[in-house]
Amino acid sequence: MNKKLLKYWKNCLLDAEWSNSMFYKEPRVTLAFEDRMPESIPEEDIELLFPDGREDGKKCKVRIAPCVLLPEYENGKPIGKTFPEYPFFITATLGPDGSLQLPENPMDRVPMFVRKFLSPNAKDDRTLASLDEVDSLLSAFKTDVATEEEYWEACKALFRKATGMTFAEMNYPDQPEMVITKAPVTGMAQNILRLYDKLLECKEDLPLLECLTRCECEPLLPLPDCREIYANKRHLAQMSSDFPLSVSQRETLAMYTHPRGSRIFAVNGPPGTGKTTFLQTVIANRLVHSVLTDGEPELIVASSVNN
Q1: Is 53:79 a contact under the CB 8 Å cutoff?
Q2: Helix/strand/coil for 192
Q3: Whether the model pTM is above 0.85
Q4: What angle do CA 79, 123, 168 make, to 5 degrees?
Q5: Could you give the CA distance from residue 296 to residue 16 in angstroms, rounded to a whole number?
Q6: Residue pLDDT, tens place only, 138-190
């Protein structure tokens, strides 16, 4: 199994969850910088963060940007971005009373560097540290802290080791600040990230995943001819006769049932083009095949994000 590719996919998902672009779309609160975690957020500022309100007595996750990258200028003209950017985030729990607390989940205590500021990166992006160095520091990061003070100091020490700077040094020189927003909703992503972690730790053979992560290209099959499309001997069944298969669906089925077809078969198309009908035909085909060969019914697993 190509675990390097799995780790790359995991990191891509993680980067998307914590992208700087999402940060600018969220309501935010700006506080005067203190070299420690703020004790609380004023009630009027909480209303800004949660304009639709929040459930009474419910804790919420927020993220704190304790430093800021200011625009750079040369000969009176800006170099790169003309607005401040926030490269580092610390997660905290917002209590019902507005207090900022240590995150209850140890996984949430690991601070986050925005990927675009870690090399290798695009030539127009500023570089604070290398991805390898940050990965090494995060791997050794201690999440078993007992207090907010310990947590903040650990995050501050990690940032300094990675960048050679303090939060105050990477900030406005006259009026340093820290910015707080709601943490991104990552319920689904967190489940997928945990799955990636389990796969990376797994020592068993996973043939289907091995097939998916192979870097070699599969041999291309020729397009089926008319006989293979309309007289496909391996087309054994259909879910119903209410929606006969179209030409494109029959072409797809001929490719799917080809003896030299890959173990992974991808079908895509706009809504309403018959992907679900095709999938029903595949399921009916496999069930009838089991009956005709006197075999055990196959285990078929279906997963969907929208129906």
Answers
A1: no
A2: helix
A3: no
A4: 60
A5: 42
A6: 989 999 999 999 999 999 999 999 999 999 999 999 999 999 998 876 556 77
